[in-house]
């Protein structure tokens, strides 16, 4: 373990530094040096034998003897945290912070490590208080803000998360535009659900300011326009959202179809789907296109879909083809549609629809914020034979 090997270097160095500082002194100082060395070896022995409590007692005594070894003791506290011994890490860091002779930079570093202990232990309120105390620190202020941003995202406190993200951006961390846009989209989504139209529009403007090509903002705009009765505007916003992110068509195809049909824009929808399919090569536009065409000519729609599936077969595409043939009484020559449909259903049962391209988390629901790695806008529709 890297942390343990560090201690083999740091702790003897701490003992030697104590000896060097006392070199030239006689009597009582030499006795203290001997005591320090004995405590070091006892503590190290306890640590190697997994007797953490006894090791802490010895190293605490060592800290009291030698006041110039804060970094060494921080390394030990970090070791406890990384081993998952949170109570011991917290206890040890609290002991260090209680020392009256710490310099300002040392105090900030110990407080930062203690905040990490609390965060790892799930005590987010305590971690938040310490990180807030450290935001103006030249040494750890930026790192403290990053952890605050993480805490506020876990707690879904989007307003505070935006504040920390903007502070990081102002400090030179420029890769925050997409994050801030997504945070504004979260607030806009909540405001939309609460029928707060002006708040929704305000945060959508902010989202588009930070990320002009944000597909989610267009999607929320479409939903807002639809609720407000502006169906043509909704149709245009849905199309724009899907052009920015074709995956959105999978979860919103029914709403897209409805607003186009309600406004007499069926030809516009058909033409748009054809262009979207040709431009992206994805099957989702072709599936909706086949569904619309089947209302006029089921056989032609089936032939169209079969031709697409020949080039890019997917389980979902084959299953819809069977539904299409069955619902319009188009016969199969050799194999009954029920048999194929059952086979397709078995293959699809339990299959995830979305996967995070950052960490691989998969599930049946779309998440703007990945529940596993907490990355924004990385959950995509799974492609391939069992995808789309």
Proportion of residues in helical segments: over 70%
- How confident overall, as mean pLDDT? 82
Give the CATH architecture of the domain at 2-152. Answer: Alpha Horseshoe
Return residue spans where pLDDT drops below 50 for at least 5 consecutive residues. 1-6, 13-22, 24-32
**Biggest sheet: strand arrangement:** 2-1-3
Please report which band the strand proportion falls in: under 5%, 5-15%, 15-25%, 25-35%, 35-45% or over 45%: under 5%
Number of helices: 19
And the CATH topology of the domain at 2-152?
Serine Threonine Protein Phosphatase 5, Tetratricopeptide repeat
H-E string: HHHHHHHHHHHHHHHHHHHEEE
Rg of Cα set? 31 Å
The level-1 CATH class of the domain at 2-152: Mainly Alpha
- The span between the termini is 44 Å
Please explain how this structure is put together.
- The protein is mainly alpha-helical and about 400 residues long.
- Among the domains are: about 1-150, Alpha Horseshoe (Serine Threonine Protein Phosphatase 5, Tetratricopeptide repeat), CATH 1.25.40; about 280-350; about 350-388.
- Helices cover about 70% and strands about 0% of the residues.
- It contains 19 helices and three strands.
- It has helices at about 1-20, 30-50, 50-65, 70-80, 85-95, 105-120, 125-135, 140-155, 160-170, 175-195, 195-210, 215-225, 230-245, 250-260, 265-280, 285-295, 300-310, 315-325, 335-350, and strands at about 355, 360-365, 380.
- The chain has a three-stranded antiparallel sheet with strand order 2-1-3, with no helix packed on it.
- β1 (about 355) and β2 form a beta hairpin.
- α11 runs antiparallel to α12 (about 215-225).
- The protein starts with a helix and ends in a 7-residue tail after the last strand.
- Mean pLDDT is about 80; it is low at about 1-5, about 15-20 and about 25-30.
């Amino acid at each position: 373990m890297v942390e343990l090997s560090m201690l083999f270097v740091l702790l003897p160095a701490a003992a030697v530094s104590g000896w060097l500082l006392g070199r030239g002194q006689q009597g009582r100082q030499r006795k203290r040096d001997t005591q320090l060395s004995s405590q070091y070896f006892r503590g190290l022995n306890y640590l190697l034998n997994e007797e953490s409590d006894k090791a802490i007692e010895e190293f605490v005594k060592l800290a009291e003897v030698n006041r110039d070894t804060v970094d060494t003791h921080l390394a030990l506290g970090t070791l406890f945290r990384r081993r998952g011994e949170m109570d011991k890490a917290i206890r040890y860091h609290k002991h260090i912070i209680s020392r009256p002779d710490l310099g300002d930079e040392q105090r900030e570093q110990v407080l930062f490590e203690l905040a990490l202990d609390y965060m790892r232990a799930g005590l987010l309120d305590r971690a938040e208080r310490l990180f807030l105390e450290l935001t103006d620190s030249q040494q750890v202020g930026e790192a403290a803000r990053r952890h605050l941003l993480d805490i506020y995202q876990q707690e879904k406190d989007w307003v505070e998360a935006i504040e920390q993200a903007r502070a990081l951006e102002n400090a030179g961390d420029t890769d925050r535009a997409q994050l801030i846009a997504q945070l504004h989209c979260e607030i806009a989504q909540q405001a939309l659900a609460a029928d707060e139209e002006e708040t929704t529009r305000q945060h959508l403007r902010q989202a588009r300011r930070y990320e002009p090509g944000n597909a989610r903002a267009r999607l929320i705009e479409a939903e807002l326009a639809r609720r407000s009765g502006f169906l043509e505007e909704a149709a245009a916003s849905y199309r724009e959202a899907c052009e920015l992110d074709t995956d959105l068509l999978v979860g919103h195809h029914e709403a897209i179809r409805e607003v186009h049909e309600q406004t007499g824009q069926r030809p516009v929808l058909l033409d748009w789907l054809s262009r979207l399919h040709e431009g992206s090569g994805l099957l989702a536009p072709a599936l909706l296109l086949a569904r619309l065409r089947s209302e006029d000519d089921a056989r032609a729609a089936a032939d169209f879909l079969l031709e697409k599936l020949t080039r890019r077969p997917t389980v979902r595409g084959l299953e819809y083809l069977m539904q299409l043939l069955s619902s319009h009484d188009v016969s199969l020559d050799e194999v009954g549609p029920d048999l194929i449909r059952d086979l397709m259903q078995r293959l699809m049962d339990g299959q995830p629809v979305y996967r995070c391209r950052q960490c691989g988390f998969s599930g049946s629901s779309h998440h703007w914020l990945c529940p596993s790695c907490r990355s924004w806008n990385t959950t995509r529709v799974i492609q391939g034979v069992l995808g789309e």
